[in-house]
Design goal:
306 residues, mainly alpha, 0% strand
Length: 306
């Protein structure tokens, strides 16, 4: 028995007219090649510490970036708030942690030409302003506030309309969610060594608190009973959902997606803390700013391999 899902003519037109973005593709390929070069370099020097999963994580993250920006999802988010929400969730909840898990900073530095990589590394290590900026962007309070402000800010009707009205505004929105996602997950994943030492319960609490603004926003979209973003009133309907039903679907998706994306890692971390070995559990795998495994002897535990 064949079951055909109802699909509007507008969706067929988008799928037929879709083509990939060459500039975005070239940039992502270049980043992947530079990272791969750095990974191979360190892999040759430290074959037992530079593990393949980092390469797989970053390449997966870059692939998802391309799917979100260059696939039919990118074209269809002007027609459906649900698809728009999928893009946001993918960028913040999947792309960002995958990229961070690949420790992109140190390995990209290793992938650059030697002179360029050394000069850039020396600048980052010796420049006082760069050090202060690095300290700020690694602070959990700043990361939490930036991510929350990004999510709430881009969903304000006026700002949302500006993003949907032009390609440049849409590009800025994507870039904002990418940056917000990376900053949000930075205190959780900690891909590079950090001078700060946080309590064992800070990360579960951080993740739990992050769900609250998203829950409020998603509940508003589901239960407000009116169309929040009028720009969708004139858009072709996909899958025969009304504008209000599409909005409710987007809100429900955000509610469920954020809950799983944030609370599942919080539960895993909590179980590790409560385990008999919780007091001696190892910190997240970290590398130093030059790409070498960091030493955590000052913390009373050994660093995980990279």
């Amino acid at each position: 028995m064949n079951v055909d899902l109802p699909m509007s003519p507008g969706l067929h037109l988008h799928l037929e007219a879709w083509s990939f973005s060459l500039p975005v593709t070239l940039v992502l390929v270049l980043v992947a090649l530079v990272y791969l070069r750095g990974w191979v370099r360190l892999r040759r020097e430290l074959p037992n510490t530079i593990l393949p999963w980092r390469l797989a994580a970053l390449m997966s993250g870059l692939s998802l970036v391309w799917i979100v920006i260059g696939s039919p999802l990118s074209a269809l988010d002007h027609e459906s708030l649900t698809i728009h929400m999928i893009n946001h969730l993918v960028l913040m909840s999947f792309v960002a942690p995958l990229l961070l898990a690949g420790a992109p900073g140190p390995l990209l530095l290793q992938g650059l030409p030697l002179r360029v990589g050394r000069r850039l590394n020396d600048f980052l290590l010796r420049n006082l302003m760069a050090q202060r900026l690095a300290g700020l962007i690694q602070h959990p309070v700043f990361c939490w506030l930036f991510a929350t402000a990004t999510v709430i800010g881009w969903h304000l009707p006026v700002v949302f309309h500006l993003a949907m009205a032009s390609r440049s505004g849409h590009a800025v929105e994507y870039a904002s969610f990418m940056l917000a996602g990376v900053l949000f997950w930075l205190p959780v994943i900690q891909p590079v060594s950090s001078p700060r030492e946080w309590s064992r319960w800070s990360r579960p609490l951080y993740l739990f608190l992050a769900t609250l603004p998203c829950d409020i926003l998603s509940a508003f979209l589901v239960f407000c009973g009116r169309v929040v973003y009028p720009s969708y009133l004139s858009s072709p309907r996909l899958f025969h959902l009304s504008v209000l039903e599409d909005q409710q679907s987007a809100g429900a998706l955000m509610w469920v997606g954020v809950t799983f994306a944030y609370l599942l890692p919080a539960m895993v971390i909590t179980m590790r803390v409560l385990s008999p070995q919780g007091g001696q559990s190892r910190h997240p795998a970290q590398v130093s700013s030059d790409g070498r495994p960091s030493s955590s002897s000052s913390r009373g535990c050994s660093a995980e391999v990279v």
